[in-house]
Amino acid sequence: MNAWLESLEELFDKTYLDEFDEIYYLNSTKMVDKSVIEKASSDQKLKDFLVKNESDSHEDLLDFFLLVNDESQTIIAIYSPFDLMEEENVFISLSNIEEDFSDLESIELVK
Fold this sequence. Notes:
Blueprint: H1 3-11, H2 14-17, E1 22-30, H3 34-42, H4 46-52, E2 61-68, E3 73-80, E4 89-94, E5 108-109
Antiparallel strand pairs: 1-2, 1-5, 2-3, 3-4
Helix pairs in contact: 3-4
């Protein structure tokens, strides 16, 4: 099984994940305020945000996933702490995403 999918299954009920036909890992970024992500999403510049905010493996990260079904696209950012004593959790979820991520270099099919 894909490690990204295992990570998502620890955070979400399987029935929720089964609502989506495809799940993609988009990229990991450095931590930012939720409002920055919301603004990038509303401006349809989330792909640019993902490219510009490269992560450093020695700091807390946000792992971005695109969940797709026939009706909509949802972006979920998972907070992945550098300090392993903390647990991963959902940082932000954005529904009804219309931006196209298909040409993002880091995109990876998870499911």
